[in-house]
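Hi Q.,

Before the meeting this afternoon, I wanted you to have the nicotinamide-adenine-dinucleotide prediction in hand. No need to reply - just skim if you have a minute. The sequence and ligand are here:
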Amino acid sequence: MGRLDRKTALVTGGARGLGRGIVLELANEGADIVIADLLTDVAEQTAAEVRQLGRQVTVVRMDVTDTRSTQTGIQQALAERGGLDILVNNAGVAPVHTGTEADEEDWDRCYEVNLKGIWKVSQAVIPHFVERRAGKIVNIASIAGRRGGAWIAPYNASKAGVISLTQSQARELGPQNINVNAICPGLIWTDIWRAIGGMPEGEDDPVLHERRTYFDKIIETSCTLQREQTPEDIGKAVAFLASDDARNITGQALNVDGGIVM
Ligand code: NAD
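Predicted structure with the ligand bound:
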């Protein structure tokens, strides 16, 4: 018996990285899955892993910045899976610069994808949750929304906005028996980190080694538990917040960061 048996969860940005970890942990807990992502080829690989766990899975192509795409994607998910119980708003971008200020394009992208994208997908799902008088929403924020770091202001501001949006959604939807919480992940080695300043040529690219050294240094100097976090760590926290074990938790932002922020 899993904590999410007979539930269906839609995860935006579920193709890779944290999203893949969340998808697999929810499936491990018994949930059927909808992966909503721009990268449908990569999403199909993750979907194959879900099927190996014995769960049902649907892949929908979705751009969270596009109203038509989010509405159509949610309608497709509802039609194919017969309903949704859990929404995980995970899709995000992080245009990181080292030593230079972010530009206007970075501001627009962070706002459109990380913050307004959550609002847009939620708007498409909330009427369904309200009709059922049940639902769980988990928004993926970041510790960057808790404490600003240099050269990445648009990302930090968008993630602080996600924490604030989570509180508004929780207050608005609580009377309809809908829980809304956020998770603030710490440091997870994904493509967001690998691509700082441009995607490396391959695993042997010396640039990748430099980035990994930089990442390890941050963990050494800022993380109380002295270890990086993993997509599975984030997935386990999402599974808890999406389960009835967390039925009386709403409007919270949970740090899963090895003790970076406290
Ligand atoms: P990633 O780049 O590996 O994965 C992001 C996923 O989102 C990809 O599958 C991508 O295709 C999808 N995506 C991007 N834009 C989209 C759009 N417009 N519509 C639909 N899908 C879109 O990054 P990740 O590290 O796995 O990040 C996932 C989330 O976790 C993000 O919200 C990120 O801000 C957050 N986060 C990551 C870290 C970290 O250290 N990696 C830390 C804190 C928070």
